[in-house]
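DM between two lab members

TW: hey, do you still have the Cilia- and flagella-associated protein 298 isoform X2 entry open?
JB: yeah, one sec
JB: this one, 191 aa:
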Amino acid sequence: MNGVKSVYPVGARYLKRMTSAEGMGKKQVEAGVCVTMEMVKDALDQLRGAVMIVYPMGLPPYDPIRMEFENKEDLSGTQAGLNVIEESKAQLWWAAKELRRTKKLSDYVGKNEKTKIIAKIQQRGQGAPAREPIISSAEQKQLMLYYHRRQEELKKLEENDDDSCLNSPWADNTALKRHFHGVKDIKWRPR
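TW: and the structure you got?
JB:
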């Protein structure tokens, strides 16, 4: 029970496959399958088996994974403990409305079965949760960087208001016409 990891790569690959985002959950979501407690227990059993393969000596008693498997995890004093809300103190919110337990979800959303909503859980008495930002912070930074660069380019263009290039021969509008008429080097002033 020292938590020494196995040297066998097969076990490590099995555990990686079990915990990856491409596992059973994504396929079930695409197929529209509802999750049951039996499916959750089966997935936990598979994870237990994968941990037993990767750690043949077993996990130490203080390991959070072992405590979760034995349902002894104590979240008091941790950040995760602040996120746990008891069922009696929880409220569901959607579209700045509290979803009452006595009403059906179709009373709020309608009868269309293909409607997807994102509801938020909040502790009772805290009011509606904060709204999601329209754009993420990374997108906002990129947008501000783009507009800053654009503003710098416009400043440079305003500063570079030099008209001396208009007197050069390549900027003459009638140069082509004079070339074809054969009057390109005629000077009207006497020498």
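TW: got it. Helices lie at 9-19, 24-31, 37-54, 64-69, 79-83, 105-109, 137-159, 175-181. The chain has a mean pLDDT of 79.
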